[in-house]
Amino acid sequence: MEEHANVPGYTYGSTAVAHCPVACDDFEMMKQSVLFSDEDVEYLHLSHDILKDEIEDILDVWYDFLGSQPQLVATFAGPDGEPIGEYLAAVRQRFGQWILDTARAEYDQRWLDYQQEIGLRHHRTKKNQTDGVSSTDIVPFRYLFLLIFPVTSTLKPFLARKGHSAEDVEKMHAAWVKSCLLQLTLWSYPYVKDGDF
Fold it and tell me: What is the pTM of this model?
């Protein structure tokens, strides 16, 4: 997958993205709370060179899982209850770009801002707007964190595909789990009552 190439609705770093309300200092404390270190950044970078050639295969696995879960497919459904194909396709492309963004591990203000944008797009604040669809108005919060396990567990075999040691694979996988925990926590901001985040 060529990074950023014609990904519909991908606005990372643009002025269309709102400022993240989580301060950099608070994010640093979040990283400390999940034991995320510079070594994890190094292992995410290592994973980038592996995963960049595996994006479509990874997405096939993730979309097969999503398609097997009616409660998840429902968040892509139109008023007739049927999944909106173009919506699924556009999100798939952004999901592929998300893999690359995660593996690049550039935790700057632009990255923080885009996490806020992703959270808003799952919440009723902005869901459906990016793709101009008429679907459910929210991805229920109860599914967000739960997806960390299927996403990261199915990613692990891909991390082992290029002959890295078992130790390196474990460290890449652990870095992915920590990064996903950080991201999903940031995505939850729109769902949390003011003052409680």
Answer: 0.95
